[in-house]
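Sync notes, pocket subgroup
Present: LS, DG
LS reminded everyone that the earlier model was apo-only. Rerun requested with magnesium ion included. Inputs:
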Amino acid sequence: MAIERTLAIIKPDAVASGSAGGVITMIEEAGFNIVAMKKAQLTAAQAEGFYHVHSARPFFRDLVDFMTSGPVVLMILEAEDAISRWRELMGPTDAAKAGPDTVRGRFGTNIERNASHGSDAPETAAFETAWFFNCFERV
Ligand code: ATP
Ligand code: MG
């Protein structure tokens, strides 16, 4: 067990439906420390670079269009085992298959409009937190 940091995104669908507060409440009640948080409208370049590992996938263009369709909330979460614990709280990628006590189950719709993002490993967490927060914002 180790204290970790992970990048969380409340995606445009959940922000647009007024669910950002509900997601943040779930995060706080689960015991995460929100180290940094900001609302932003992503540019295509920011979304493409963030999801570069998926650039060859057939859904890439739709994913970038969705992620730039409205504002998102970006957060750095800190806790013991934050990376796996946040993914557990989010639920599976396909929100239609997510349980009612998960973020995606409560606030998502389907595999694309799935309300939230979480880093999947220490290396991606390091890349993703630095992608959106500069060194002064993530002390
Ligand atoms: P995220 O990285 O957003 O936390 P994830 O790690 O659960 O989600 P990935 O496999 O990394 O899932 O996919 C990244 C995102 O791409 C998903 O959250 C989803 O919005 C979209 N996506 C993944 N697979 C599909 C698919 N088959 N069709 C449409 N969109 C998809
Ligand atoms: Mg992923």
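DG: The first strand starts at residue 3 and ends at 10.
LS: The CA atoms of residues 6 and 125 lie 5 Å apart.
Action: DG to write up.
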